Amino acid sequence: MKALIVDDEAKARRILENLLTTHCPDVEIVGMADDVPSAVKAVHQHKPDLLFLDIEMPGYTGFQLIDFFDKIEFDIIFTTAYSEYALKAFEVSAIDYLLKPIQIEQLIHAVERASLKNDAFKLEKMEALRQNLQTGGQVAKIALPVSDGLLFVKPDEIEYLKAESSYTSIYLTNGKSLLVSKTLKEFEKLITNPQFMRVHRSYFVNLNHVRQYVRTEGGHLEMDNGDIVYFSKDKRDELLDAFQAMND
Fold it and tell me: Tens of pLDDT along 39-78?
């Protein structure tokens, strides 16, 4: 696998080069660059399979590198010192990243995940990441794994999520549902948009898609798609406050 290291700090480039040489023998480092313009030239010259790309660099950011290419034929692993909220944006966009200082085990796993094939979702993953980083911690788009790749959905296209042991069923506004290998607790941490609420140990609900609140028979919500979602007794007051806030 041919790789290019792009980072404006010489020390960071040397450290990553040494780590790759020592722990990832299948990776051949074909070049280095200290900014985006020189990285674009190196990509055309060496045609790498993989870029290790810093984000914050003078002149152009790492995100802007993709604007120089009509077709992305390489994988990207971002190297970043971004804050926790931004790392969430990377995760929900299905983009690989390495948090500085780079840990050996994380590097090895990221390289193992890197694909040598052209990925039809590369540009969409990058655009989803760009949008998520611009929303100040809220999710603009989330990448959900499906049988033939990834499905990118906006949070408001999700009606509710239901715990299925170590999996989660996601019910969409178009009537479709997906079973994803993440726990409901993981999604609760990732999707912090204010319209979402954990109303029960088994349900994480988009309040914008609640058609009716029913307090009898133990209490439940009727969703826009007609599904019934139950809420816990201790969530009743919080739910009513949330509905009131939506009307203010």
Answer: 999 999 999 999 999 988 999 988 889 889 888 888 899 9
Q: Concatenated DSSP letters for the chain?
A: -EEEEE-S-HHHHHHHHHHHHHH-TT-EEEEEESSHHHHHHHHHHH--SEEEEES--SSS-GGGGGGG-SS--SEEEEEE---HHHHHHHHHTT-EEEESSPPHHHHHHHHHH--SS--TTHHHHHHHHHHHHTTTTS-S-EEEEETTEEEEE-GGGEEEEEEETTEEEEEETTS-EEEESS-HHHHHHH---TTEEEEETTEEEEGGGEEEEE-STT-EEEETTS-EEE--GGGHHHHHHHHHHHH-
Q: What is the pLDDT of residue 187?
A: 94
What confidence category does residue 137 fall into, taking pLDDT thresholds of 50, 70 and 90?
A: confident
Hey, what domains does the chain have and what are their CATH numbers?
2-133 (3.40.50.2300), 154-247 (2.40.50.1020)
Maximum separation of any 2 CA atoms in the chain, in Å: 69
Of the candidates 42, 14, 17, which has an alpha carbon nearest to the alpha carbon of residue 29?
17
Distance of CA 188 to the CA centre of its chain: 14
